[in-house]
Write a structure and sequence with these properties.
Blueprint (H helix, E strand, L loop, with lengths): L11 E9 L10 E6 L4 E6 L5 E7 L1 E9 L2 E10 L11 E6 L5 E3 L17 H13 L5 E6 L6 H21 L7 E5 L12 H7 L1 E6 L2
Parallel strand pairs: 1-7, 9-10
Antiparallel strand pairs: 1-4, 2-3, 2-5, 5-6, 8-11, 9-11
Length: 213
């Protein structure tokens, strides 16, 4: 007599994920979060060099979030249904498409006034940059320093260069290769706001990251 064992319902769906840009080129090192809205659980996945990874998701509704530099952006939502007895999940596949940012500002990076000394409350922001560069080992960046218009223009240029180099040195100390980082100061030459107000000056005093390749 042939005995057939009953099918046991799965409690998780193995979900295959492909992350690409809109030209269907894989995005390696992409960090994707699946936030279970009912159980308040976050499940992370990181794309390999081919843009692929898989995660095991229990039944529930998930908000898919794109994570970069400690910040998250909502992408879409999916639902993994609860299975009945003798049911199994079919292949679950998701394609996530987005364009990576080519530049961003380190908004939580702060220096001592008129100096190139990084304040300790900036370390979390810089550590997120280290993580970002570690996940994308072939990426090269420019660290661009900017100031407001207070003080002499030539001194602002020097200060911005020193601040950019301070960020580079932090990354080097964390194991990022020097060949991957260009540090350049622009002084007050590229304002993004008016220098007539305190709020405008604060916006102009910034450090930007530009992806070179």
């Amino acid at each position: 007599m042939l005995l057939i064992a009953p099918i046991v319902a799965q409690d998780m769906a193995t979900t295959k994920v492909l992350v690409t840009n809109f030209k269907e080129q894989p995005i390696s090192g992409a960090e994707i979060q699946f936030f279970n809205t009912t159980q308040n659980i976050i499940i992370d996945g990181i794309a390999g060099s081919d843009g692929r990874f898989s995660v095991d998701l229990p039944a529930g509704v998930y908000n898919i979030r794109l994570k970069c530099m400690g910040k998250t952006k909502d992408y879409t939502a999916i639902e993994i249904p609860t299975l009945k007895a003798n049911e199994v999940y079919n292949d679950v596949s998701i394609i996530i498409q987005y364009e990576e940012e080519s530049s961003f500002t380190l908004s939580d990076l702060h220096f001592e006034t008129a100096k190139a000394i990084i304040l300790k409350d900036s370390y979390n922001e810089l550590d997120e940059l280290v993580k970002y560069l570690t996940l994308k080992p072939h990426l090269r960046i420019e660290v661009a320093g900017h100031t407001d218009s207070d003080g002499a223009e030539d001194q602002n240029l020097i200060l911005s260069q020193k601040r950019a180099e301070a960020v580079k040195n932090y990354l080097l100390a964390k194991g990022i290769q020097a060949s991957r980082i260009v540090a350049k100061g622009y002084g007050e030459s590229k304002p993004i706001a008016e220098n007539e107000t305190a709020a405008g000056k604060a916006l102009n005093r910034r450090t930007e990251i530009h992806v070179l390749e």
